[in-house]
Amino acid sequence: MAAICVDTVEQNLAMVNKLLLPFPVLSDPDAQVIEPWGVLNAAERGIAKPALFLVLPDWSVPFSYVGEDFTDRPTDEELLAGAGAAESGGSP
After folding, report:
1. What is the distance between the alpha carbons of residues 34 and 45, in angstroms, rounded to a whole number?
2. pTM for this model (two decimals)
């Protein structure tokens, strides 16, 4: 598991340390990775929409969620359904 943010390395490190995140948070300040995935907020350049992608080793994406703003997050049930579908080879 990893996160990718448009924030700087320093900002991401501070967030990881503050929240004690058990996964790395990678920096993409130029949105070179984020933009092709369609999650760059067009209304506010330099800000990404909250998004989750479950990417398997074969690069398939059995689950994805793209929110509209920072408050729009998937529910635990949606996440678990997506993970369960990935395990069984189906879709949520």
Report:
1. 12
2. 0.72
